Automatic annotation (TrEMBL):
It comes from Roseicitreum antarcticum. It catalyses: Couples ATP hydrolysis with the unwinding of duplex DNA by translocating in the 3'-5' direction. Keywords: ATP-binding, DNA damage, DNA recombination, DNA repair, DNA-binding, Helicase, Hydrolase, Isomerase, Metal-binding, Nucleotide-binding, Zinc. The keyword Metal-binding applies. The chain holds residues 1 to 420 of 679 of the full protein. This is DNA helicase RecQ.
Length: 420
């Protein structure tokens, strides 16, 4: 057993590394600038927590959500690791504990919200703490065009320059463009050691259907999974409300969730989803980051997602416990028109718009695939694989497949001509 695996088991209680973790841990430990792209649930936190313990000084962790930070700090403290957080949610006592640990030189991990980087005194605090490593969780928040963009993430580059220490960035967003943006904004364009691993989630069944009556299709899918926790993603706020009502009328326990609700209402739904069995949340993509429920058994898309990355992230919320999980994505000509016009009418510069059209096209390619969907999906992320046996195209009887041919032809025509 190496020192690292010994520490992994002694401190964290894990008997081995998950696929990909060890190389990342080693790179961070060696003080290399590192970019690690790993799917949700892959175990990214450990990849900075373990090196932080092995290195001199303190690792500052930038993370976008107070709830995520508090969870991690609580978890670390329970393991006996000296960790603390500076967030707006702190009690005075918690903040004093952090300052005391900094001055004692005992703190190993200091979590910080990006907003904190703007505060005067933060840099000198980090110097006083002997900060020797910056870890950036959810690094795609630095991408100006993603829907998780956080302006204060743009301050991290300055922090790295001023502290002059290595930086390790982590994200589950895999597309090449977001990666380039992370490299230019966090690493000043200097290529970090990059790790891209393990995008397959074999327990998640993949399926697409041409949309005819979405309400009926979603309700049949939900009815076949009654009592199981699930998410239905919709393209608009209005649709989350109507579909949630329709599902409730059919006797499901179902709630709408979208960015137009006030934060207290949203919190209520988030918490209910966490603790109740069998709740269906009908949501826009606002329901996402920070949802950490391991036993979501199904995810359905009532409308086509906007990109292949979005699709992957959204279905990836299902089955984090590794047990079988089901997905269904509906799509039709109206979805394609809607998504195209959302891109065209957005405020992004032209090169960005053409990239967004390309991401949408990749998703349509997946929807229109004629052989194993997982192979198509994984090849998009740069992984080769065999036919999976766990997608509709691997298991669908040929005659159902043939029945959808005319519709698929019509869709292909829209795709090719761009007439919509
Ligand atoms: P991510 O940030 O990549 O979504 P997390 O860091 O939250 O993933 O880890 C997901 C889960 O995997 C956590 O419950 C964590 O404790 C667990 N985990 C991480 N590494 C290992 C490991 N080597 N062995 C077993 N469980 C692990
Ligand atoms: Mg994480
Ligand atoms: Zn397959």
């Amino acid at each position: 057993m190496t020192d690292l695996t010994a520490r992994l088991s002694r401190v964290f209680g894990f008997s081995s590394f998950r696929p990909g973790q060890q190389e990342i841990v080693q790179s961070v430990l060696d003080g290399q600038n590192t970019l690690a792209i790993m799917p949700t649930g892959g175990g990214k936190s450990l990849c900075f927590q373990l090196p932080a313990l092995c290195r001199e000084g303190t690792t500052v962790v930038i993370s976008p959500l107070i709830a995520l930070m508090r969870d991690q700090v609580r978890g670390l403290q329970e393991l006996g690791v000296p960790a603390g957080a500076l967030t707006s949610g702190n009690t005075d006592e918690e903040t004093e504990d952090v300052f005391r640990a900094v001055d004692d030189g005992t703190l190993k991990l200091l979590y910080m919200a990006p907003e904190r980087l703007a505060a005067s005194g933060t840099l000198s605090l980090l110097r006083r703490a002997n900060c020797t490593l910056i870890a950036v969780d959810e690094a795609h928040c630095v991408s100006q065009w993603g829907h998780d963009f956080r302006p204060d993430y743009l301050r991290i580059g300055d922090l790295r320059r001023m502290l002059d220490v290595p930086l390790a960035a982590f994200t589950a967003t895999a597309d090449a463009e977001t990666r380039d943006e992370i490299v230019s904004r966090l690493f000043d364009g200097m290529a970090p050691a990059t790790f891209l691993r393990g995008f397959d989630r074999p327990n998640i069944r993949l399926a697409f259907r041409v949309k005819d009556s979405p309400r009926r299709q979603i309700s049949e899918f939900a009815a076949a999974r009654r009592g199981q926790s699930g998410i239905v993603y919709c393209a608009t706020r209005a649709r989350t409300e109507t579909l949630a009502q329709a599902l409730s009328a059919e006797g499901h326990n179902s709630r709408a969730y979208h960015g137009g609700m006030d934060s207290i209402e949203r919190r209520v739904v988030e918490q209910a989803f966490q603790v109740e069995d069998g709740l269906i949340v009908v949501a826009t993509v606002a329901f996402g980051m920070g949802i950490d429920k391991p036993d979501i058994r199904w995810v359905a898309h009532a409308d086509l997602p906007k990109s292949i990355e979005g699709y992957y992230q959204e279905i990836g919320r299902a089955g984090r416990d590794g047990a079988p999980a089901d997905t269904l994505t509906l799509y039709g000509p109206d979805d394609i028109r809607l998504r195209r016009s959302q891109v065209d009418e957005g405020l992004a510069p032209p090169e960005r718009k053409s990239a967004d059209h390309a991401r949408l096209n990749s998703l349509l390619g997946l929807a229109e695939a004629t052989s194993c969907r997982r192979q198509v999906l994984l090849s998009y992320f740069g992984e080769e694989s065999q036919p999976c046996g766990n997608c509709d195209l691997c298991t669908l009887p040929a005659k159902i497949f043939n029945a959808t041919q005319p519709v698929r032809k019509a869709l292909s025509a829209i795709l090719r001509t761009g007439e919509y």
